[in-house]
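Record passed on here:
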Amino acid sequence: MNVLEQQLTYPLGDRLPEAGHVVEVAPGVRWIRMPLPFALDHINLWLLRDEIDGVAGWTVIDCGITDPSIKAHWEQIFDQHLDGLPVLRVLVTHFHPDHVGLAHWISAGGDKQRWDVRLWMSLGEYMTARTLCLGDVSGSSAGGEAAAKHFILHGMHDEDAIEKIRARKDYYSKLVPKMPESYRRLREGDTVRIGERDWRVITGFGHSSEHCALYSAQGEILISGDMVLPRISTNVSVFDVEPEANPLAWFLDSLGRYDDLPEQTLVLPSHGKPFCGLHTRLGQLRDHHAARLQEVRDACAVRPQSAADILPMMFKRKLDTHQITFAMGEALAHLHVLWHGGELRRVRGEDGVLRFAP
């Protein structure tokens, strides 16, 4: 546990659900933990006891990637951990593959087609996922020619990494092969009644297009998705589909939407362990990005910097291809805050690379 984590409280200690099993974290709220084939090796998913139109059952929040082993874990949960009740709806926080990958399959009742229920998402997240699963990888950070050109423009020159990025054309559609053809829209400030609790929708921007977290004052529980994580900072990136975006500013602004929640709120994040100490963590995230922004200012004051120049300063460990795409996007996001804010100007060099200077 690092120094910042020690400032937070973990009510369940080191307890973790085994794959295919659940842990109850609050009355009617069960925690599922599914593996991921990335450096970030897991995702937390949630089961909420529910009742719709007089029918008792469960709401599933987030789904995991499409993968035979993840389906097998879900089948075990359907058979052994739903108390004999059906899933009544599937709610997804955002379009990233680890969250929406199996939404089509769970909505249709798994391999045994036990039920046929509605997917709930925001418009921005649903339409992004619908587009990307058809094979257009632009904006997914995954790869393809547009992504390769984007990273070259911002100083990437490692030919091996560039070729690997070009080759990742079907990354998203492999993990999210299909989306339900209809959905129910979630919007900022909506109240969703799930079982005996009302949950307020809190949208967030910067990490994804229209991320939906859920807060219930009954029990003071926040299902934070990827917006507030306990151990790592959420990835905030500029990608090829929106090359002049300012996602870090949007993300930091979105954090303000949690300022009115109680400090003792039980936060259920998509990665890491459930924790308390929400305002402490919000302060840590703001401090983290303020420190990174100052490093970028200082570097640009010495000489013009591209995103590739900034990357090793922000990420001091060896990165694989998957991580490099996010790291490049995040380096550029920090440069863009200062560029949009008027502190930096953007200049194209004779080599065609975009660099930033005071």
